Amino acid sequence: MRRLAILGASGHGKVVADTALAQGWSEIVFFDDAWPNVSSNGRWPVLGNTESLLCFAAGYDGIAVGIGNNSVRREKMKLIECKGLKLATIIHPSAVVSDYALIGKGTVVCAKAAVNVDVQIGAGGIINTGAVIEHDCCLGDYVHVSPNAVLSGGVTLGHEVWVGAAASIKQLVSVGNKAVIGMGSVILRDVAPEVTVVGNPVRIL
Which residues are marked as active site? Predict the structure, then answer.
């Protein structure tokens, strides 16, 4: 029996749990800082908060962070790592991941995603449902590529970049750290760090 603890009883946390079950984890529980006011996440129990998880982590075979917000996910994962605990990398069996792709620890690759040859994804990433990461892309730590977003070949994402649902990024484009790409946006040129861009043609908010 493989037991997984997920920190973050959110909607995204449910997706992580469902993905983990498909991957073969047999028992899943949640921890969340809203506990005890939040005692369940759908069909899964919430047993405590972050402090509780750190106290009882030895009883689990892996820990995942089910938090969509990049900076909060980074903070929680760093805390878990500092305690010497094992972060689980979770990949849905319906995802297509090249044998020549490198997936960082604690990353979640959801159903129907495609990660192609010579892709590198850092720690703590989210490659969400149906996202496409084409050949030779390089993604920093704690990125979130939302459902049905497409990164063409050779795209570079800095740390903590968020790519919105159904956004498309042209080949060889670079996106700076902590930039946000709005839903459905079409990115044809480099994006500076820490800006939010939206639309087609794209504009800075």
Answer: 135
